[in-house]
Amino acid sequence: MLKPQQNETRDLLPLDGFWQFSLDGTNYDREMAVPGSVNDVFADSEVRDHVGVYYYKREIFIPRSFTDKVSLRFGSATHHAVVRVNGEEVGRHKGGYLPFECDITERVTPGTTCEVIVEVDNRLDMTCIPPGQIVELPDGRLRQEYMHDFYNYTGIHRTIYLVNKPERHVCDVRIVAGMDGVCHYEVTQSAPGDVRVTIEEAEVTGTGDKETLTVDKPTLWAPGEGNLYTLRIELLDGESIVDCYREQFGFRTVEVKGHEFLINGKPFYFTGFGMHEDHETLGKAHNDVSVQRDMELLHWIGANSLRTSHYPYAEEWMDYCDRHGIVVIDETPAVGLNMAVAGGILGTTAKKTYSPESVNEKTQAHHADTIRELIARDKNRPSVVLWSIANEPDTTDPDSRAYFEPLAKLARECDPTRPIGYVNVMTSPYDKCHITDLFDVMMINRYYGWYVDAGDLETAKQHFTEELAGWVERFGDKPIIITEYGADTVSGLHSLYNSLFTEDYQVAYLEANSEVFDNCDNVIGEHMWNFADFQTKPGYARVDGNKKGAFTRDRRPKAAARYLRNRWTNENK
Ligand code: BDP
Fold first, then answer.
1. Mean pLDDT for the chain overall
2. Against a cut of 0.70, is the pTM above it?
3. For the Glycosyl hydrolases family 2 sugar binding domain, which residue ranges apply (predicted)?
């Protein structure tokens, strides 16, 4: 899905600001800011703890000039949305972190107002990605449970645009451009007609929907070098341009060869973090300046990459990565497909993960939708080098194969040009996992020295080294990225004795883990967990959130940040 844009043939108006807000759809006695998470805003907990639908309402003007195809375009609504204009449903979407668009042309008159109501539902059940369960409590209240640790922020998290585009318009474009300067493009039009496609910086032009253009000695997009080109697509009616759309792209090649990950033919070593869209008060709302701050800190620390753990991030975030040469592992919202981990941690009997009562065919169908939608959104981004189709699913259950095999196939069909992977959980090592062979890259999350061998880093190193040797023995032809390793750390807490939760222990933990990575040739990347401290779900045994950040939640560096900066900038990792 293309991002909306303002240009010579298209128009858009952001609908950010205060909307009327209600918990029952009749009594609009509150306001809520868009974009924003609803949970940390109000002083009482009625909104915060609400399980169900939140209603947003606003009168909007349709400008007189909006006479063509008019739509409402959402960056995301977490987790489900029904959109009504003047009382009539104009669209609905399932899934909290991907964009959707509702055509409202027939419902509105340019030069008049209309009433927009957005019903945002925060409920997660087993058919959702991420999955969850609603539990009815003895006193009749509802509680939302889920199998991931980060807080289930809800709301309209990204800008809503009122869009006007020509009746005949560019619906989509797919661009594949390699380091040889060859650019294949494929335009989808709403109705057939003539087209002119130009790479603006190189002044090469094609006249078909699907063609190949060549740029002589292109300036490559590369890690740290966000060199972009612009593909201008013009739909023509004789001499006149009826629609125009500009899509940026980069010339670069990505390839997995043996246990190496090559970008433009050169081995790439990932340094960086699994991150979260998470801030005090904002929750998961997109905010340009917060993204910029995070990116500046990534640059300062010497990180060349990040993973959008555990859901697709805002398009503005991805644009920034494209422009600045930040390498991205792009992840679907499929986190928490693991009943075994939940059962294990809580000490209860683990339920089976793949069954009609838990992760089932409907979950899989929706998981497939998220893969399609993610790839449709981000396919042209040079920053994206690898798709991660899930985080820490249960893959010890033999039924995981029937669940994941079609999804891996689908990801490859949606994008034959990039490698694919999934992120492996500690309880599913090389001799228990049923799906590793379906993917190009092994991404593994390991907490030796934290969840196991806590406080005993010598043993942790030994166990981690042994496990890596097992992966290499069995799947030695594939590269390994350590997508998570980390230790909760309370900023300001110190000890001479490497006590858990201290800044000293976090540094010692990172040192020990780094030693293990450096001794394994297959390891081609390290993403510490997490970039910053983040909020976790209520009722979870954590002190005000997950404290594994290299930075605090307000982005102050812990000692670990200086350790990583030293490692990643000096050793050129
Ligand atoms: C991993 C999860 C991540 C958690 C992390 C932790 O992938 O989302 O936040 O553990 O426990 O299992 O800190």
1. 96
2. yes
3. 39-166
